[in-house]
Amino acid sequence: MKRSIPELQHSEQALVMVTAYDYPGGRHAQAAGVDLILVGDSLGNVVLGYDSTAPVTLGDMIHHARAVRRGAPDTFMVVDLPFGTYHTGTQDAMRAAVKVIQETGADAVKMEGATTEILQVVDNLTRNGIPVMGHVGLMPQTATAQGGLRVQGKDDDTARRTLEGAVALEAAGAFAVVLEAIPARLAKLISDRLHVPTIGIGAGVNCDGQVLVTHDLLGVYEGEDKKIARRYAEIGKLSREAIEQYAADVRARAFPTRENSFVMKDDVLDKLY
Ligand code: KIV
Ligand code: NA
């Protein structure tokens, strides 16, 4: 059954969140019993083949989130607001969030950052009944401005900004905050400081929950090893080998066999000759 926000916030166990981008992804995540599904804009990287999340549109997010929802009707689903859809004022952000909620059945939206403008958006949305998950540390949508995809919060300046950002997001009404790619001790400090749950990725074991990009945990891309992830399967290798085997069988005329074929009566066939 779908967990409510208070249930998620008071969970004794570590919260489990994975990303999903389509119907089978939603089905697998729900069948596995995860607490939350994130339709992340990592969609751009792992499904659409872009080299950043910046090109992902609101339409892309809605298209994919609808499919996830069909596969996971009973799991708490968070949908990322993509780059540019919440940066042009609280009205635009509200419109984008309402569209996501209405068209996908999302339970909450997520957005990156804790600038004054973003905090205003979080405050506005949550006051109007739209649950918001925050996201600080490494923020892929604006990674270029952060100096690339790198760990944040190692130095005094970015550590303080990350801590203050998380605290401000909670004060603005965020029901949970993702901590991405920050030192484990900073993540622990933030998790101790906040009342709402922290959900870490590349943020050590002392967060209230963990999130991973499913394609990383499934090993969808052969030869790609990320420090922050653990591969629980080699789906990419299995997929390639299965297609290779299929190709070999077709070329050897070993597929299809009689079992895969339909029969007809001899007399019906005879009439055609
Ligand atoms: O888009 C995404 O998958 C995310 C998670 C990595 C937190 O934002
Ligand atoms: Na994201």
TrEMBL record:
Pfam families: Pantoate_transf. 3-methyl-2-oxobutanoate binds at D41, S42, D80, K110. The keyword Lipid metabolism does not apply. Mg(2+) binds at D41, D80, E112. Its cofactor is Mg(2+). It catalyses: (6R)-5,10-methylene-5,6,7,8-tetrahydrofolate + 3-methyl-2-oxobutanoate + H2O = 2-dehydropantoate + (6S)-5,6,7,8-tetrahydrofolate. Binds 1 Mg(2+) ion per subunit. InterPro entries: Pantoate_hydroxy_MeTrfase, Pyrv/PenolPyrv_kinase-like_dom, Pyrv_kinase-like_dom_sf. Its EC number is 2.1.2.11. GO terms for molecular function: 3-methyl-2-oxobutanoate hydroxymethyltransferase activity. Its main location: cytoplasm. It is found in: Cytoplasm. Pathway: Cofactor biosynthesis; (R)-pantothenate biosynthesis; (R)-pantoate from 3-methyl-2-oxobutanoate: step 1/2. The active site is at E180 (proton acceptor). Gene3D superfamilies: Phosphoenolpyruvate-binding domains. Keywords: Cytoplasm, Magnesium, Metal-binding, Pantothenate biosynthesis, Transferase. It comes from the Bacteria. Catalyzes the reversible reaction in which hydroxymethyl group from 5,10-methylenetetrahydrofolate is transferred onto alpha-ketoisovalerate to form ketopantoate. Belongs to the PanB family. Homodecamer; pentamer of dimers. This is 3-methyl-2-oxobutanoate hydroxymethyltransferase. It comes from Deinococcus rufus.
